[in-house]
Amino acid sequence: MGNFSMYVEMIRIRFLMMLAYRTNYYSGILIYSINIGAYYFLWQAIYGTQESIQGMSVSQMTTYVAIAWMARAFYFNNIDREISQEIQDGKVAVEMIRPYHYLGVKTMQGLGEGLFRLLFFSVPGMIIIWLAFPIDFSNQWSVWALFFLSIIFSFIVNTQLNLITGILTFFLMYNTGLIRAKRVVIDLFSGLLLPISFYPLWAQDVMGYLPFQAISYIPSMIFTGGFVGSEIYSAIGIQIFWSVLLIIPIQALWMLAKRQLIVQGG
Amino acid sequence: MNVIEVEGLRKEFKSYSSRSGLKGAFRDLFTRNYKTLRAVDDISLHVKQGEMVGYIGENGAGKSTTIKMLTGILTPTAGNVTVNGMNPHKEREKFVRTIGVVFGQRSQLWWDIAVQESFRLLKKVYKVSDEEYETHMKEVIRTLEIEPLLDKPVRKLSLGQRMRCELAAALIHNPPLLFLDEPTIGLDVLVKMKIRGFLKEINRKYKTTILLTTHDLADIEALCDRVVLLDEGKIIYDGRLDELQKNWVEGKQVHFEFQHPVDKPALEEISREYPVIWRQGERVNQWVATIDGEDDTVSKLMSVVMLHHAISDVKLNKVSTEEIIRNIYEEGIKHG
């Protein structure tokens, strides 16, 4: 149980760090609100007089956009950039003399960041959005429960991709470009900007083989009622599948990375 | 019992050299020239519990690389390392609980949060109980005089303040073995003295073994009975500090400060009969004579020099450790 209290402490420290940079926090709320607002009006214009597109009504779409961004606040973190930074200036050395697993600690820091945003950013943000735009909140507690279960896996899959991108710095030494590319790919292919059912069929097929849909599309579809019944369970099954599968490349890369760890400025 | 046992330790780095010119740069895209660099070359080292060992050498001599292998950060290319009865790399998580490390050039505290929050986290990381923390850390905090700094974020501390906090952070779990990599770099004399006093204190009280690298030989003189001298990855001296001083040079140093510019051949000319080596001092008209011989010879030399050249100042010193080390680097060990 000793490890557990250490991880709680890590999350607490991350809360303190987020509070140390309050301005980031405020500007974050503003950026997210602007994004949601912009997409709301964009979708209003696209729908025009149409009742539904691809089986989604306009109010479902608005809810989809709002919830997708609010879920992003939880699963999104910058640990890829942090790992990359720590590798580049040799801070990883310090981490190696600590009795913990570096990647586990990074994941916990990401979780701390996510929980902070969920509590102090998504929840108040959602209330504001709910007052401003017509959004359907489900009144079924099971939908809420499944949604929260689903964003836990969103966090896991996204964090795993971040870990992979971060660890790649060991081999590339400089990977700001890769980190940026990864961010765009996730925003695009995860269904944050556009539900995956809106893509052409061939693209949907390709995305079916990629882990990105597990990040945003699945929880948002669960929340908006786009998925019902057994669809929900198979969707969460996909998330679990990726969460487990991605452990393999992470472990492999980490083993390789440790072997060729060269601390800079030694 | 030996706390550190190192046998035939070696570390090689592969580094690539770039070819010159645009054509070379294109060729580098496809194939690269690799060079193998031996940073640590077959060293063997045994350290007993409670020893304070100074590990010195020029920049790039392999000090930090050795420390990184001893702490399990780097894997050795060859050789055996046993520290605290464990293989640092194999049993990393268990092993690092038994050591404390301070890197002078790298902070281990969290930059944006108060020092006490870092301490609190480290206390959890090392699973230190409240009672242990109370008794041990209270004392450390008091001796290092960091009580008033605890609620400040690390980024607002001066280097000296930060260094004292780093030292306290490395001691949270009261490790029996402490690695200090240039702990006094860039610090003023008062802070240095405070840190030295503190290290002596914990060594006396807990029999903490300390391995310390530094460029400030005053640290070594104040703390270590034993020095290990490293050059190009090899140990060139391992033994008592006073023996190094005794064996290396028996003699005196005379610092002359002349009123007018003097050149080396002129000085050598007038002091031909004496076993003396001249060296330009730190100031323009300053020359340092190192004499190997009796006191008699020293006074004779001084009178000869003063007879020929007007001087403004003269100082007679014993050869300093710094001087000895410098000579060793420049000429290698000859006297043994």
Question: Could you walk me through the main structural features you see in this protein, from its secondary elements to its overall organization?
Answer:
Chain B: Keywords: ATP-binding, Nucleotide-binding, Transport. The complex is a heterodimer of chains A (266) and B (336). Chain A is mainly alpha-helical and 266 residues long. Chain A is built from 13 helices and 2 strands, in the order H-H-E-E-H-H-H-H-H-H-H-H-H-H-H. Chain A has one domain (2-259). Chain A has helices spanning 2-20, 22-47, 58-75, 79-88, 92-96, 102-132, 141-167, 169-172, 176-189, 201-208, 217-224, 230-245, 247-259, and strands at residues 52-53, 56-57. In chain A, helix 3 (58-75) crosses helix 11 (217-224) and helix 4 (79-88) runs parallel beside helix 7 (141-167). With 336 residues, chain B is α/β, with parallel strands linked by helices. Chain B is 37% helix and 29% strand. In chain B, the strands form 3 sheets. Chain B has a 6-stranded mixed beta sheet with strand order 5-6-7-3-8-9, with helices on both faces. In chain B, strands 11-12-10-13 form a 4-stranded antiparallel beta sheet, with helices on one face. In chain B, strand 6 (177-181), helix 7 (189-206) and strand 7 (209-213) form a beta-alpha-beta unit. The mean pLDDT of chain B is 86. Classes of the chains: A mainly alpha (266), B alpha/beta (336). At the A-B interface, helix 1 and helix 5 of A face helix 2, helix 3, strand 5 and helix 4 of B.
